[in-house]
Amino acid sequence: MEKKKIGVLVMSYGTPESIEQVEEYYTHIRRGRPPEPEQLQELQERYEAIGGLFPLRQNTDRQVRALQDRLNEGDHPYEFVCYQGLKHARPYIEDGVKQMAEDGIKEAVSVVLAPHYSVMSVGGYNKRAKETAEEVGISLDSVKSYHLHPQLLKALVERVNTSLAKFSVAAEQVRILFTAHSLPEKILEMRDPYPQQLKETSKAIADQVGTTNWEFAWQSAGQTAMPWLGPDILDVLARVRKEEDVRHVLVCPIGFVSDHLEILYDIDIECQDAAKELGIHLERTASLNTDPLYIDTLADVVTQTLQVNKG
């Protein structure tokens, strides 16, 4: 019997694929307003500092392929076909949904490569996908969040334990800084669950690791007139060194699921430089990328969403 095709729209932020595409990408982020020359130069220099690499696209491609393979394992009545939909690069979210329709998909699930829900991030992705799906006649259900999924937590706990072994002191003497991308403070007025979900993930990991020596910090805030959520990780590093004489720090960026600029520059270069100036030994947990536990997490939340909405 022929299996029923189910579309899976895998959504993420998007990235340029070359220095030449940076301006178009930055302009899209700024809602059509081209960046000032100095802003463009700064972003280009950051990419050049990580070797002129644009790893997010390749990492996302690998995650999507791995998810499709995982979804189609085992005996079930569906054939899952994965599509990409990016917020700020091609194929855009709308492109991914329209491609599903062109391929004859009538039923689909969308999932974002970000475990924590915010109306400004995951909510926005899901809204764009839903609106386009309605236009082209696709029944689409969306995963909202999966920040406490046991397989996700297991993958992150393994990374923390592996990284703690790199320090010359006992694990309990290492301050763990869990981080995620900052968002504008206005989300607090909306009672957005993003900050709370991040702290729940942090505590769950710390509890499984068996440490109380941790805190949460924000990173990669945008350069806008409006205030963004803090404290920023650079400020936290300075504070813990000066006020608590912390000399060993492990950064665990739980808000990110693959290697890209916010990891390879903001942590591996910017934070590492600050740590060296402060006399701090800083390590970072490895990114999830295509870790089977993370792919299992995605596959599980997709199939659960499909089953729940089938009643």
From TrEMBL:
Instruction: Name the UniProt key words of this record, in alphabetical order.
Output: Cytoplasm, Heme biosynthesis, Iron, Lyase, Metal-binding, Porphyrin biosynthesis
Enzymatic reactions: Fe-coproporphyrin III + 2 H(+) = coproporphyrin III + Fe(2+)
Q: Which SUPFAM superfamilies match?
A: Chelatase
TM helices/strands, residue ranges: none
What InterPro entries is this protein classified in?
Ferrochelatase, Ferrochelatase_C, Ferrochelatase_N
Any idea of its EC number? Answer: 4.99.1.9
Q: In which pathway does it act?
A: Porphyrin-containing compound metabolism; protoheme biosynthesis
Main localization (coarse): cytoplasm
- Please verify whether the record's keywords include NADP: no
Q: Name one GO molecular function term.
A: ferrochelatase activity
Positions binding Fe(2+) in this chain are: H181, E262
Enzyme class label: lyase
Write out the residues that bind Fe-coproporphyrin III.
Answer: Y13, R30, R46, Y47, Y125
Compartments reported by the entry: Cytoplasm
Q: Which Pfam families match?
A: Ferrochelatase
Q: Which family does it belong to?
A: Belongs to the ferrochelatase family.
Known role: Involved in coproporphyrin-dependent heme b biosynthesis. Catalyzes the insertion of ferrous iron into coproporphyrin III to form Fe-coproporphyrin III.
Q: Can you name this protein?
A: Coproporphyrin III ferrochelatase
Name the gene that codes for it: cpfC
